[in-house]
Amino acid sequence: MGIDCLSNPPILNASTGVGYVTNIAGVNSYVTGSPLAILAIVLISDVYGFKPPLLRKIADKVANHGYFVVVPDFFHGEPYNKENASRPFDPWLKDHDPAKGIETAKPIIEALKRKGASAVGVAGFCWGARTVTKLGKAKLVQASVLLHPSYITVDDIRGVEVPIAILGAEHDSLSPPKLLKQFKQVLDAKPEIDSYVKIFANVSHGWTVRYDPNDPKAVKAAGKAHKIMINWFDKHLKK
């Protein structure tokens, strides 16, 4: 596991955002946007979970475009906490295997569809990307976005069956540009699946969700990625 994933840890105990926390399919989730919206977006966090204020701000931003947005607590109250010396990262990750995130995601997506969602988009940051690709393989969602993904292989991308956008960083040991270019090659060979791959210059892993809000350049770079994500959902869900 690269050090990239653990750099710039956010505040974990903040209760911010214009939405609220509720239970969906047995999972505490931050929700925002009109409950009457017929299009839903699920945001799957990095290892720091669903509480960081910047993640909730992103959810609020997406909701402003007419979506009901859900940010589930995939770690069931146990996000990674860098300050907890008694719980090193490797054993934590073993208990929170990114390959198993789909087991939490499926019932949430089913619940959203039962509530009237006609289409569901999903975006994953870092840890969350593995779940997004699995959902895309199983055609359980209608559009997907990966932001600085971790634990993703070329085979994972080869199996995706829904529109996918991949936003990567120039400086990223977990998904280096070389790997992202391989993802693009695989997707270009599947023209029936709409795809988009972009490598952002001068940014590092985590730049879309763990940026310094007081740094104008960092805010601008993150904002560009958020805009691409929202445009991707607009293109594939608002038909």
UniProtKB/TrEMBL annotation:
GO MF annotation: an example: hydrolase activity
InterPro entries with a match to the protein in the record: AB_hydrolase_fold, Dienelactn_hydro
Any one Pfam family match given in the protein's UniProt record, by short name: DLH
Domain Dienelactone hydrolase positions: 31-236
Protein name: Dienelactone hydrolase domain-containing protein
Organism: Phaseolus vulgaris (Kidney bean)
